[in-house]
Amino acid sequence: MRSSILRNIALVAVAATLGAGCTQQESDTTEKKIDALLSQMTLEEKIGQMNQLQGLGCNSDMIAAIKAGRVGSLLNEINPDTINELQRVAVEESRLGIPLIFARDVVHGFKTIMPIPLGQAASWNAELVEECARVAAYEATSTGIRWTFAPMIDVSRDGRWGRIAESFGEDTYMNGAMGAASVRGYQGDSLSLPTSMAACAKHFAGYGTSEGGKDYNTANIPERLLRDVYLPPFYETVKAGVASFMCSFNDIDGVPSSGSVFLNRQILRDEWHYDGLLVSDWGSIEQMIPHHFCADLKEAAEKAVLAGVDMDMMGYAYITHLKELVESGAISETLIDEAVRNVLRMKFRLGLFENPYVAVRDTLPFYEEASLAVARRAAAESAVLLKNNGVLPLQSFGKVAVVGPLCDSPADQIGTWCFDAEPEHSVTPLQALKAKYGDKVIGVPGLTYSRDMSRDGIARAVAAARTADVVLYFAGEEAVLSGEARCRADISLPGAQTELLKALKATGKPVVMIVMAGRPLTIPEECELADAVIYSFHAGTMAGPGLTDVISGDVVPSGKLPVTLPRMVGQIPVYYAHKNTGRPASNITLIDDIAVGTKQTSLGFTSYHLDAGDKPLYPFGYGLSYTTFDYSPVTLSATEMNADGSLVASCTIKNTGAYDAEEAVQLYIGDKVASVVRPVKELKGFDKVLIKAGESVTVDFTVTAEMLAFTHLDGTRGAEAGDFDLWIAADSDSGTPVTFTLK
Ligand code: GLC
């Protein structure tokens, strides 16, 4: 066992150095090519490779800059003819013919839009997440885009932050697993294939902790917490061979990431031996001036290149000041050479020197059946059934009323960060339900958009509900309310949506609420009112068919929450992997239960909110099915293990209901006593298994000491001997732990 573990460690180190899909020999050859090219480059040409600009078509200034070797990469060009013409200028008219790399944010699909990453995480299906990225790469590369700024793997525990939509949620392990799956999907079997594109692990690092859930805000993360919670997903992408990284906008404890030697050199290069490209975020080098970290653009350029940022996205810092900084001796040309090597290495790995042009096709491979099928499956698997009093799946009915601002909104269902989406290709829930149930469906949105405060449409919606046997209420957020710089201090349902729900409920008809949002919303009252609740994080082009598959029972729901649903915004941050505190919640007296005149000392003194208690509305990992599952007690192959050993934890799950169904089985481990306070439990694995009705499946997880490791007070990392609780459960708040000892 030890030898195989050591071998794996060695292989990981090599993979991280070589980049996905290339051999040592190929790597050596590439380095020789880089040396040869670098030796011919002027300082200006080197600096040009470090400059990334927004595409402006074939305008004369851009053509002149490319010809002069002042541009290394363009983002947001998506026309194949334009891309090929600009590339022709670079390859045939510049002095050294170094190809450009064309980039775009292809975050959850290019034309066929998949669920937002938060929704993909809700599928608990890494293979599906990989397929989603593969489809995105297949479509995007057909236009000449060979670099995407994805996956975003910022652990996000604050639903007020608009960019939680782009993340894989609150958990370290989940972000790492789905981030690595995305890298495999985008980059394919070899980065040099024309259908592969460089992935980009972003935003490095700690962006998900932006204070107050307000975008671009400061992050205060102690180094041990940074290393144990926020950095591991990035390292998982390094092990998966991610071709690039992107800086984050935030500072950590006063140092903006674009100027952080600690992050970009000590962690990324020295500890992780990463040899990919590090690009700034849009203007993040220049933004060190408003951060009050740099006095001017020249100082920003100096600090960023000293911190190891290889490419300046739209900051004009490098192209304006690096030459002067080198010639004045303020920075060594060696630093420039290092950065240019990383840029050239990614271009060589992409095969751009051999194949710089995109094949121009009469028709581009958008919306192919196979791609739409992946999108539909992802929309269904990302749906989380939170409540069901038996109204789902829809049984035989005469009429169904389809209501709500998200029931027929093609642009909103695809969510944020999908520049190239075409809403006319969306299939909305109303369209899909009509396709399935024909004139049994009565569609009356009631509100025209999620923030609509007008009551005019409510009466019509209620009238439709009265004529129906069941109401499907599609509530949630417009796409514009989530994503970058779209933060909300109140994360309840916007507009008059709750009022509309109450009016629908007052008809006495069963109401199924389907929430389509870009974040966890605070919906305790609405969940109480609805007879069933499905949570769908903006599920993409095929949201309609996917959700219809679930509502009808054609697909049994298997989604589980990748993020805690708070009861109230005031509970934030609220997440499952919390610390136990010295006074864990007990003897809870809620605010409405406190008798008038109660003395200060007569209530308990433990950790909870008087007006919310200590539990969220729904916990991380929670999701129902149309069937039921019975988890056996966990068995262990041993109750003790050595640091270089392992043990196997097993659980048999029986499908005790009437539907064949998939179940995301979750492994949690909690360190009972350690030299620093550890979370009560942490997700250490999951396995989504199909269990046929009446049958059982046994799931095994191998536990190793590496899974128990954390950063110690002295900065070293490793597991500590002692007792650990282990759960194999349906979610983060259920199951009975067993205990094992690490010797
Ligand atoms: C944005 C985002 C980043 C994105 C980049 C390019 O500001 O922060 O995630 O990749 O700019 O669009």
3D architecture notes:
By secondary structure, the protein is α/β, with parallel strands linked by helices. It is 30% helix and 17% strand. The protein has 20 helices and 27 strands. A six-stranded mixed sheet has the order 11-16-15-14-12-13, with helices on both faces. A five-stranded parallel sheet has the order 4-3-2-1-10. Helix 16 (429-437) links the parallel strand 12 and strand 13 (441-444). The longest helix is centred in the first third of the chain and has 17 residues, at 2-18. The radius of gyration is 26 Å and the shape is globular. The two termini are 17 Å apart. The relative contact order is 0.10. The chain binds alpha-D-glucopyranose (GLC). Alpha-D-glucopyranose is lined by residues 105, 149, 202, 281-282, 484.
* Radius of gyration based on Cα positions: 26 Å
Distance between the termini: 17 Å
- Bound ligand species: alpha-D-glucopyranose
Number of DSSP strands?
27
Largest sheet: 6 strands, mixed
Give a summary of the structure in a few sentences:
This protein is an alpha/beta fold and 743 residues long. The protein is built from 20 helices and 27 strands. Residues 105, 149, 202, 281-282, 484 line the site of alpha-D-glucopyranose (GLC).
